[in-house]
Structures are given as C-alpha cells and as structure tokens.
Design a protein that fits this description.
The structure holds 2 protein chains of 2 kinds. In chain A, the strands form 2 sheets. Chain A has a 5-stranded antiparallel beta sheet with strand order 2-1-5-4-3, with helices on both faces. Chain A is 41% helix and 26% strand. Chain A is built from 5 helices and 7 strands, in the order ββαβββαααββα. The chains are: A alpha+beta, B alpha+beta.
C-alpha cells in the first residue's frame, strides 16, 4: 500500500497530500515527520536526487523537484524499490505538466493538472499508471497510444 | 507541518504574499494563484455550475480551487458538500474533456453519501457503456469508489467485460477497482476469476501487474491454487518487471509453505528465483536476492544473491544502494560470515551522502567485522557520528554494545568510544542508550567494570538528566564498594550532594551510605559527609541522611547483625509496586497499622496473547484473578469467612482453572488458595440454563489420590439461579510448609427446579441431580510465588553458595529450545528475570534466570542452562540457590519428577 503522497514547498508547507489507510489522528505525525526529514536532508540535495529512509516498517522515498519537495511513503509490497517507480512516475508527470522542474508558483499555476496526474498514477494506495506520455493523454481523456 | 501559506487565512500572519526573488528585480512580489482564497467565495463561484451556458474554462478553475481547499485540510459541512456535489453533477452536460476529467476527480474527492450517490449513478453508468474508452475507464473508477454491494451486483456484468477490455486503461481501471472492492464484497469479486486470469495473460505490462495482484488476492487462502498459479507463470509469460516482483514474492511464499509441510527440504521453483538474479530489471534482481536471503538456504545457494547485492552497493542510484545494504544488514544478523566479502564496499558506504545508507552500512559492518578490524572500525565511526541524527546514533550504539559482547577483549576501544559519545551533546534517549550499554558491559565483562564506573562518574559530573544520574548513583552504590579502590568514587558522589537537585541528592545520600556499610575504612569519613546532609533544604535528603546515620551506627534496631544492615541497604525492594499501591488503596485506617508483609509478592505474569475461547470469558461477578487487586480481594474475602479465618496469611492464589468445556450447561472454574497448613478450593459456578434453578449446590471432592490432604470443611451454595455466578468452597488440611501434591476428582451435586421463563415462577418440586466436572491437581508450582529480583547477579551472589545444588538433565527430543525453556518455567512456576525467558531465534544454547519464593517464605533463585545436543535433543543444567538447602533439593525433585 502507498500510504502517502505529499508535496510541500521548501519551507515545509503542504501543497498537496494524499493519504491512504492512515488514520486521521496519525496524519499530523506523518506531516511533521516528513517535514523534518526534508529539512534535515533535502537542503543541498541535487534536483530529483532520490533519498531513502525507513521508519519502523514503512519505507520513504523523497526528492526535490524544482522548488517543491515530494515524499512518498509505502509499506509491504511498496518497498523502496516500488516507491522509486512511483516517485519516478510522479516527477516525470509533474515536469511534463509544468514543462520544467517547477517553482512553487508554477506548481500552483498547474495545480488542477497535477491533481489529475496524481489521480492517474496513484489510486487509493495502488500504483495505476507509470508512463508520463500515457498520463498526459489520460488527463485529457485521450486513450493511450499503443506501442 | 503547516499547510500552504496561501490557503490558511484564519491566521493573519500566515497570509503573507508569495515572495519570489528575481534576478532583475529583487523587490518584485509574486502572488500565489490561490492567494486570498476563501471557502465561502469559492462556494459562491460554484454556482456557475448551474448556468445553462456552461463556461468550461471557468468551471475548471472553480473545481481546481475546490480541490486546493480540500488539499489544505478545509472541510465542508454536510450542507455545503451536498450543494457542491449536486452542482458538480450538472457538469456532466458539458462535452469538454478536461472538465469531465476534473468532474470525475471531484466526485471521488467529495465521496458523497449513499442517499446522494443515486443522483450520479445513471450518468456514470451511461459513461461506463460509452464508446469513448476514457469515459468508461473513469466511470468505473468513480462508481467503484462510491457504490455499495447491491449496486455492484447490477454493474458486475460490465465490470467483467471491462477486465478483458481491449483498451489497457479500461482493463486496469476495472482490475484496480476489483482489488479495492474485494475488501468489502469478496464473494462478488471472486466470481471474476476467469476474466482476471485472462487479464494476467495480457500483453500490456500494467494490466498484467494489476491482474496478477488481484488474482493472488482472490486465491490467497487457497494454497493449492496459489501454487498452481505460480507454477504456470514462472514458465515465463510475465513481462512487466512490477508483475515479476509480485511473482517472486508469491513464489517465495509457496516455497516457504511447502518446505514447512514436507520435511525433505525440497524447494520447488527455487531455480526460478535463481534465474531472476540474471533478469535485466534491477528491481527484479533485488527482489529475488532479497527473497533468497530470507530463506533457509545453504551458503552455496546464498552466495549468488550476496554477489548481486554486493554489486548494487556501488550503484549510482541511492535507492538501489539502500535496498542492497538493508538486505545485507538483515542477512548479517543471522549469518554474518556470508556478508564478510562485502566489507570493503560497505566501508566505502560509511561516507555515503544518504545517512540512512551510511547507518545501515555501519551497523552491518559492526556485525560482520572480525576482532582485528574493531579498532579501525571504531575510528571510522568516530568521524561519522558527528553528522548523523540521534536516532541513527542510537542504532550505532546498540550495535557497538553487541560487538563488544562478541569480542570482550576489545572492550577498551569500544568503551572509550562510548565515553567520548557521552561527552557530546545529545538527547535523553541517546544518552540513555549509551549509559545502558556501559552498564551492560560492566555487568558482562568483569575487566571493564572499573573503567566503566569511572566513565560514568565523569558523566554525572555534567549530566542534565536526573533519571540517568540517579540510575548511575544506584549502580555506583552496588558496584563501587566492591572495587579495588572504593575511595576514588566518593568525590564524584559527594559532588552530587553539593551541586544537584533534590532527587539526585537523595540518591547520592543512599549511595554514600552503601559505601559506609561495606567499606570499614571509609566509614568515619562517610559519617562526616552524611552529617553535612542533615542540613539539606530538602526533607527527603535530610530524612535519608538521618536514617542511614542511625542505621550504620547501630542505633536503629533493624536486627542485630551487620548482615541485617546490609540486607536493609542492598536488599531489593521485593514488593511489586503495583501490589503495594493496590493494598494501600484498600487499606482502611484503623488501630491496626498497615503491614507490608501482608502485601502479595507475586508478580502477575503478562498475558502473552488474548486467546480465550468464547466460553472462557471471566465469570461476571466472580473476582478477576488477573488483576493485582484480586490478590487482596481474595485475602479479604477468605478472611471474612469464619471457617477459614484461622488459616493465617494467604500465601498464594492461583489463576482460575476451567473444569468444564466451553458452552456447557454449567460452567465451573476453580481457584486454588494456598496457606501454610491448608488449601482452599474456590469453585466458581455459573448456571447457563434459563429454565433451571439449582439449589443446595455442593462439590463432592474425592481426595483418595491426594493422600496428604484431609477435608476439614466445605461451604455449599444455597441457590444458583440462571446467569448469576456463585462460589462453593472446600478446605483441606495438609502438613505445614510441605508442598504436598495430589489429584482431586470433583462432582457437582444439586437439586434442580424448573423455572417458567415467561413469569419467572419456580416449580416447587425439585429433582436431585449430579454433574461430572474435570479433575483438579495441586502441583509443586502452586507452592511457588513468582517474585522478581531487580538484579539477579547481586541476589545470586548474596545467597549462601553452600545452599547451591547443581545437576544435569536430559529433556529428550523437544519441538524447539524455546518450547523446552517455557515448559521448565511452567513446571517450576517461577518468575523469569531480565527477559531471559525469550530465546533468540536459531539459538543453540540459552541461559534462563528464575526467581521466586517457596512456601515457608524461602527465597529461591534458579539458573537454567539449556543446550541442543543432536537434532532437537535438549540437555539442561539446573543450578539452584535458596535460603534453605532443603528447598534447593526440593526444586531438583520437582524438575526430576516433571
């Protein structure tokens, strides 16, 4: 299960969050835990460099894309390797929508599209689509081009 | 984590404009597109959804704003949500593709209630059968999110079609929906098995992945079906790496389960796992290596997996390095030798940018390193420690402790490292981990004792944590006087009296007193110091100083000998605090003072698992023996019965033992109360038949197989109505302080009367009847109280070595070492100390420490050393010390006859 997908700005303010199977009372804990993780490790990290951590039985893969931090938390079959696939799908889709690694402003400008991309990639805790070209077409309700 | 600035307008300080530094104009202010957004205004804007001429662009913007609000944690009231939902459904009229996609998302986000769903289902069902593929896919996802079981049966036909749809997006949408629906409607989804199987053969990678996931979930409880599925797919029809990873997991599960069933060690499909080590996808290789490493394989079979993991250690991708080092770390816990070849690569990871990877590398090295590499490792770790967070440091400290216990000769460098770490800044948890490690090393490695104590002394000179200072002072008091030069510690201890808070000062006074009691040469000087404490500002400190001065001077009568003084100072407080608290709560002020000797010494064992059957629930109204206060409740209840009041102090009450099967007509359990010269059996009876009233209920106890017991009295039950428990008591006399054993057979005898359940009237005529219940045994363990000691080693050394009795036993073939350990513990009925009841996995030998008090208030300590000789053949060495050598012999008798 993908427990959380969370975008924040570099100050740790949330831009988009999606939790799956995480009780409401535990979400605050996750928000602050992830913000601290980012504050400790993402400063000075290269664009889209993947960072990995594990906390109890869950894995966390996170990165910086432009000015925006992205965290993905998973457990069981979504270990660090599967999460790396998920984060790659999300970052590619975001870059595709924004045309480049986004500033916070650009990210907010494309907010609706990014929400749609996320809806195509992760659905209630499961990875559904992975390729950016396909996601780009799907959010416009266009069928994917078969290879 | 605060939410985004733009959205949170409730806090005026948060409503800052979004600032962006520009190279050309430093002062340019750029606003967030959502700056100033407010729920009320957006809800107003949502009225545009009702316009007859829909402006798709504007509607999309409003939906985006609504999504933003929801993502910022804004909540809609029921009325607001309903209004928005109804408005959004109007947008189905628009043909604009972008807007339609947002509408689907918005409906999912709003998750409408069941009475609202009906508004949108017809539109969605229309879309589900639309010619536009993407309408179908999205409608399936939305419907599956919002519908219940009844509606699902209506659309089941379409979903089955969708699973085998030519368009992979539609097929995936139906399969992923199936995975979610399986939780709530398993019986419906299980009917799709055939279609799902077809989907697994799809050429589209993601359809295959989702199909395999659903197929496994449908069949997961059918071992044979999973095995068949694996057997079919491992032949090579899976293309997607994600699906391949799933297949590897399922395969390893099949291998694990089949090796549990067949004893010959055959591993079907192992070749498949090995072949995955040569797959082109890194994810698949790692998954296969990880699964092989988790299995119980030979070193030769493990080697290829370790080799690929080693290659990944030098990968440029951090995720692969992390995955590899995490797996190797796990392997190193059980098979350190298998990982030694990777040590060079692991050492280079110590400087990895990603601290999680570096910490895993260090802790793996600490497990795989050999004695000669310890010094070099410690040097590397010292450089590394300064730039990692405390939580990682704790992991490292714990690994160092384990390494030090493995190579005790190297204690100097590791102890030195720990003491240096103590000097650095750090949180309480980190400091506690270090102190705990040093304390463990002191107790396990005799040579390390004096150095360790001095390091701890240095630490308390500048320690900000009261808990740790007190803990260390307590340890100093126990260990310091027995060192070669006890006087060197006095300065550190007395400094605490001058410099610290009241808690630490009080601990320091107790520590000084212990030095005074054990070291005669220091006694006069300790007296001088303790006298100074008489002027302390804190009551507790002054009281302790006064008490100790008088005790050591022999003015307070604690007994006549020096041994009694030492017992007072060093003896552990053997009353469990929870029991003392419960007794104090039930104590009613009277002429009679509170007597601590009446407080139960027995530690109630922690229940391992709640595994009670439905009929085994505690009887309502009967005292619950599982709670601490129950001991007092029993004592009180029994002493209030005149027949038993002359039996003296209650030594022990057992857990209740069921004498009937669950869900029988009459339920009976028994509690055994043990006195010095008597036992009382308390039968808790419940009548579970509403149409019956029982009268004159007695338990007829036959004690022919319990020769040393003779019945003295019994208390019957006058009546036992339906579901209202009652107690019957039977008392026996037995030789004083002798752990007599025996078997008692029981028959419940009563007069049964019919009850009219509608009126509650009872028939006057009754019929005599009897009911056989199970036999009951009094065993040796019933005479043993589970009493813990705080420091087993100290307690052991303080007991007379003359009382020690040692012997060896063969326990025969046992299921496992852990099973043998728990069997011996339950035969003796003693309290395991220091967590030694837990046997590490794969251990070939184990030492277990037990303590207890035997009837007659005789303290008993037991050291059990277990070893595996041959396949599952367990041998045991039993050493007992006790206050009475006869009891030591008795413990051996108990084990020999058990």
């Amino acid at each position: 299960m993908i427990l959380a997908v969370l975008f924040s700005n570099s100050d740790g303010n949330i831009l988009i969050e999606r939790f799956h199977g995480v009780p409401a009372e535990e979400r605050l804990h996750w928000r602050s835990f992830l913000a601290k993780l980012g504050a400790d490790n993402l400063k000075g990290a290269k664009n889209e460099e993947l960072l990995v951590a594990s906390h109890k039985s869950v894995s966390i893969v996170y990165t910086m894309i432009g000015d925006v931090c992205l965290y993905i938390v998973g457990k069981d079959e979504y270990d660090e390797l599967a999460l790396a696939e998920v984060i790659f799908a999300v970052t590619s889709a975001v870059k595709d929508v924004c045309g480049k690694p986004p500033t916070e402003r650009l990210f907010l400008d494309k907010y609706g599209r990014i929400c749609l991309c996320l809806d195509e990639i992760v659905w209630k805790g499961l990875l559904e689509n992975t390729e950016k070209d396909r996601v780009r077409r799907l959010i416009r309700l266009k069928p994917p081009v078969e290879p | 984590m605060p939410r985004s600035l733009a959205g949170d307008l409730t806090d005026p300080e948060m409503a800052q404009p979004y600032m962006k530094k520009d190279d050309d104009d430093d002062e340019e202010i750029e606003y967030s597109p959502f700056f100033g957004i407010e729920k009320g205004a957006v809800l107003q804007e949502a009225r545009a959804f009702h316009d007859p001429q829909l402006d798709a662009r504007r509607c999309s913007q409003v939906i985006t704003k609504l999504l933003y609000l929801l993502n910022q944690g804004e909540t809609f009231t029921k009325v607001e949500a309903t209004e928005v939902f109804f408005a959004v459904t109007k947008l189905f009229q628009s043909k604009d593709a972008g807007l339609r996609r947002l509408v689907y998302l918005m409906i999912k986000e709003l998750s409408p209630s069941s009475d609202e769903v009906i508004i949108v289902t017809s539109s969605l069902m229309k879309d589900m059968n639309s010619k536009t593929d993407m309408y179908r896919a999205n409608a399936i996802r939305v419907l599956c999110r919002i519908i219940d079981g009844t509606l699902l049966t209506q659309i089941e036909r379409y979903l089955k079609q969708a699973i085998v749809d030519k368009n992979p997006v539609v097929a995936s949408a139906a399969l992923v929906s199936g995975i979610h629906l399986l939780q709530a409607n398993p019986e419906i989804v299980k009917r799709w098995s055939k279609e799902v199987q077809e989907a697994v053969q799809s050429r589209a990678a993601l359809v295959q992945f989702h199909g395999l996931c659903l197929l496994h979930q449908i069949r997961q409880n059918d071992r044979l079906a999973v095995s068949k599925m694996v057997s079919g797919l491992t032949k090579g029809s899976v293309r997607s790496p994600l699906a391949q990873c799933l297949l590897i997991r399922y395969t390893s599960q099949v291998i694990r389960e089949s090796s549990m069933n067949t004893q010959n060690g055959d591993r079907p499909f192992f070749d498949y796992l090995e072949s995955c080590l040569r797959h082109k996808s890194e994810m698949v290789i790692l998954e296969a290596a990880r699964k092989i490493a988790e299995m119980d394989v030979t070193s030769r079979e493990l080697a290829p997996a370790i080799t690929v993991l080693q290659l990944f250690l030098t990968s440029s991708k951090p995720v692969l390095r992390f995955a590899a080092v995490r797996t190797l770390n796990k392997v190193a816990m059980t098979r350190p030798l298998a990982v030694t070849n990777c040590n060079v690569d692991l050492e280079s990871l110590v400087s990895d940018q990603n601290r999680s990877i570096a910490t895993l590398a260090i802790t793996t090295l600490l497990k795989t390193g050999n004695e000669s590499s310890v010094d070099r490792l410690m040097k590397q770790i010292t450089n590394f420690m300064s730039d990692i967070a405390d939580e990682f440091k704790i992991v490292v400290v714990e690994a160092i402790r384990a390494l030090c216990l493995k190579f005790p000769l190297k204690y100097r460098s590791m102890m030195n490292f720990l003491s240096n770490s103590l000097r650095e800044e750090g949180s309480f948890e980190y400091k506690k981990a270090i102190v705990d490690s040093i304390v463990t090393l002191i107790s396990e490695i005799p040579d390390a004792k004096e150095t360790g104590l001095l390091y701890l002394c240095e630490f308390i000179e500048d320690c900000e944590f009261t808990y740790l200072s007190s803990q260390i002072l307590h340890l100093l008091g126990n260990e310091g006087p027995r060192t070669s030069d006890p006087s060197r510690y006095i300065r550190y201890i007395y400094n605490r009296v001058i410099l610290e808070n009241a808690n630490v000062r009080a601990s320091a006074v107790s520590t000084l007193a212990k030095f005074g009691a054990l070291v005669d040469t220091l006694k006069p000087r300790i007296f001088v110091l303790l006298r100074r404490c008489l002027f302390d500002t804190d009551d507790e400190v002054r009281d302790r100083a006064t008490l100790y001065l008088q005790t050591l001077d022999g003015e307070v009568a604690l007994g006549n000998t020096e041994k009694d003084v030492n017992e007072f100072l060093f003896g552990s407080f053997d009353v469990p605090l929870a029991n003392l608290e419960a007794s104090l709560r039930t104590y009613e002020p009277s002429e009679e003072p509170f007597d601590i000797s009446f407080v139960s010494r027995e530690v109630k064992p922690q229940p391992l698992q709640e595994k009670k059957g439905p009929g085994k629930k505690q009887l309502a109204g009967a005292p619950s023996p599982a709670t601490v206060s129950a001991v007092d409740a029993y004592q009180k209840m029994l002493s209030s019965i005149p027949e038993f009041s002359g039996f003296g102090r209650l030594f022990k009450s057992s857990e209740s033992v069921e004498l009937t099967e669950a869900e029988t007509e009459y339920s009976v359990n028994v509690v055994k109360h043990i006195y010095k010269g008597h036992i009382v059996l308390q039968y808790n009876c419940t009548n579970t038949i509403p149409e019956q009233l029982l009268e004159n209920v007695i338990v007829y106890v036959d004690a022919t197989d319990a020769e040393e017991f003779s019945e003295v009295c019994s208390k019957h039950l006058r009546s036992l109505p339906y579901d209202s428990p009652g107690q019957i008591f039977v008392a026996f006399e037995k030789p004083e302080n002798v752990p007599a054993t025996g078997k008692f057979s029981n028959v419940l005898k009563f007069i049964v009367k019919e009850v009219d359940t509608s009126t509650g009237e009872v028939d006057e005529d009754g019929v005599e009847d009897e009911y056989h219940i199970e036999d009951l045994e009094i065993v040796s363990a019933d005479y043993m109280l589970r009493v813990a000691v705080s420091n087993f080693r100290n307690a052991w050394e303080n007991m007379d070595p003359e009382s020690e009795r040692v012997d060896e036993y063969g326990l025969g073939v046992r299921e496992s070492l852990a099973e043998a350990v728990s069997a011996v513990i339950s035969i003796l009925g003693m309290q395991p100390c220091e967590g030694t009841e837990v046997v590490p996995k794969n251990a070939r030998s184990h030492t277990c420490l037990l303590s207890g008090v035997f009837i007659g208030d005789v303290k008993v300590l037991v050291r059990l050393s277990f070893g595996l000789s041959g396949p599952k053949e367990v041998a045991m060495k039993l050493a007992v010390r006790s206050d009475d050598p006869e009891v030591s012999d008795k413990i051996h008798e108990i084990v020999a006859s058990g």
